[in-house]
Automatic annotation (TrEMBL):
<comment type="subunit">
    <text>Homodimer.</text>
</comment>
<dbReference type="InterPro" id="IPR006195">
    <property type="entry name" value="aa-tRNA-synth_II"/>
</dbReference>
<dbReference type="Pfam" id="PF00152">
    <property type="entry name" value="tRNA-synt_2"/>
</dbReference>
<keyword id="KW-0067">ATP-binding</keyword>
<dbReference type="InterPro" id="IPR004522">
    <property type="entry name" value="Asn-tRNA-ligase"/>
</dbReference>
<dbReference type="GO" id="GO:0004816">
    <property type="term" value="F:asparagine-tRNA ligase activity"/>
</dbReference>
<dbReference type="InterPro" id="IPR004365">
    <property type="entry name" value="NA-bd_OB_tRNA"/>
</dbReference>
<feature type="domain" description="Aminoacyl-transfer RNA synthetases class-II family profile">
    <location>
        <begin position="130"/>
        <end position="430"/>
    </location>
</feature>
<dbReference type="InterPro" id="IPR002312">
    <property type="entry name" value="Asp/Asn-tRNA-synth_IIb"/>
</dbReference>
<comment type="similarity">
    <text>Belongs to the class-II aminoacyl-tRNA synthetase family.</text>
</comment>
<keyword id="KW-0963">Cytoplasm</keyword>
<protein>
    <recommendedName>
        <fullName>Asparagine--tRNA ligase</fullName>
        <ecNumber>6.1.1.22</ecNumber>
    </recommendedName>
</protein>
<keyword id="KW-0436">Ligase</keyword>
<dbReference type="InterPro" id="IPR004364">
    <property type="entry name" value="Aa-tRNA-synt_II"/>
</dbReference>
<dbReference type="GO" id="GO:0005524">
    <property type="term" value="F:ATP binding"/>
</dbReference>
<dbReference type="InterPro" id="IPR045864">
    <property type="entry name" value="aa-tRNA-synth_II/BPL/LPL"/>
</dbReference>
<keyword id="KW-0648">Protein biosynthesis</keyword>
Amino acid sequence: MKTTIAEVSKHVGEEVTIGAWLANKRSSGKIAFLQLRDGTGFIQGVVVKAEVEEEIFQKAKSITQETSLYVTGVIQEDSRSPFGYEMQVRNLDVIHESVDYPITPKEHGTEFLMDNRHLWLRSRRQHAVMKVRNEIIRATYEFFNKEGFVKVDPPILTGSAPEGTSELFHTKYFEEDAYLSQSGQLYMEAAAMALGKVFSFGPTFRAEKSKTRRHLIEFWMIEPEMAFYEHEDSLKVQEEYVSHIVQSVLENCSLELERLGRDTSKLENIKAPFPRITYDEAVKFLQEKGFDDIEWGDDFGAPHETAIAESYDKPVFITHYPTSLKPFYMQPDPDREDVVLCADLIAPEGYGEIIGGSERLHDHDILSQRINEHDLDPEAYKWYLELRKYGSVPHSGFGLGLERTVAWISGVEHVRETIPFPRLLNRLYP
């Protein structure tokens, strides 16, 4: 019977066959221990010389790293294994022999591993990170489907930009100028006017020449937009959503988190509600902490966000940023025109902003004025303005960066490990 490593718990005491690759091995004169992987997980195969034909045992001792094979044996429970099971191997059939696999169990430099990203993905650590990423995606669909959101797919090629074109990738669209999308937000606002509550999940692109551990050139965003939702309503959705994905990873990826060495006690506390401070309060806090470089009207950098986050054991909202720091589409605070109804959600442990969101401007004339003030082409935004012309309503939305969220939840230091094939300032290969 063929099965997968993920399914072996259903076959204890049975003889099964698994298609696998050899991740590693060690052997003595009488026993060979094979570390096997099949994409669904890892399991140890034990080959006892006295219990198999000599040919099988010699094959087990000589087999090379990343050789593909069919392994047949009996599944047994094993309390010493984090996985909880192992296979008593009875037979091995080599499918394809791997020769001189470049990533050996020794230490390798980051650039070497990035050059071999197509193979590095096979490692236990990268496997664990990708499983956490997948669980966050699964839990995202679960949450928004449960809450009555409709999935909508905005275009990747656009003729305009939510935040200007200075950091966009330009391309020619036949005779017109076009850009790779930096956000699907504007289109999602149109979708919200049609469907009420919507969300998108897709790739976004920023031509930002940054080399920090928090930045990628191509990354994935989850972007909900909600009609008739004001600023406070949106914050509640955000904290409930983040709580849901964290608790889902804890429940369904415990083995992967253990493999990554993640301190799960720091994640167990991530439950709504989250603390909130205003931008004004954040500036005062930072000045009291000795950040003499920060004044009202300045944007926060990574050290500032980290200092604020260290005061909390949950993600923290920083709300009501100055109008001058934020994009043109954000709703002014009705009590203060110099700030907008927005929030950045800062993750604990130095991982920085994982969500940016706001109530959107719903007044036609003010939005038109803002477009002009930001030197944007009114013709390119004509359709966006028309959303405020035909039945405009208060509405809000946000965007969560998937890779930063994966890095935080899995405890990985650099976002380059959180996406299968990272695009960085100096990397377009493989």
